[in-house]
Amino acid sequence: MIDSNIPAPPRPGIYYADSLLLYGAKMNQREEYGRFNVGQGGDTELRVQIFKARQAQTSKDYSIVLAYGYAFEGHCYRLDSNRIFIVTGPPMKTLLAAASNPR
User: Fold this and answer.
1) In a domain, 13, yes or no
2) Which residues span the domain enclosing 76?
3) What's this model's pTM, rounded to 2 decimal places?
4) Is residue 73 part of a domain?
5) Which residue, 91, 86, 84, is CA-closest to 60?
6) DSSP-based three-state secondary structure for 99
7) Cβ(3)–Cβ(69) under 8 Å?
8) For residues 45 and 36, what is the distance between their CA atoms, to the nearest angstrom?
9) Which of 20, 25, 28, 42 has fewest C-beta within 10 Å?
């Protein structure tokens, strides 16, 4: 479903064919893990982090994204509910339209 309420990318002129642009928030912006409140009075949380060969990976190696939409081939789409994505790879090849301060 195409939704006209999804904002445009933060910088004009960014377009890579066959690339997916996520709209949302990077959840491991400040820490090496993503933190999600699971209720129970606000003092219980779920933490998500990638480990490789039992070594914790840094937030420079991957992104945990809480996304509400995406763009593909010039069209913007809204997801039916917020989704969590784990995006791996070099940061320069990862396009992420995320809030700099999601909390």
Assistant:
1) no
2) 20-31+61-99
3) 0.68
4) yes
5) 91
6) strand
7) yes
8) 5
9) 42
pLDDT tens per residue across span 19-56: 788 889 889 888 999 988 888 877 889 999 999 999 99
90 domain-assigned: yes
Q: Where are the alpha helices (DSSP H) in 31-75?
A: none
Dihedral sign (CA 11, 19, 28, 45)? positive
Q: By the 8 A CB rule, do 2 and 76 touch?
A: yes
Contact 102, 31 (CB under 8 A): no
Q: Assign residue 101 a region: left if phi > 0, alpha if psi is -120 to 50, beta otherwise?
A: beta
Residue 21's identity, in one-letter code, is L
Within 15-74, strands assigned E span 20-26, 34-37, 45-48, 51-52, 55-56, 62-72
Domain count, the chain: 1
Q: Is residue 75 part of a domain?
A: yes
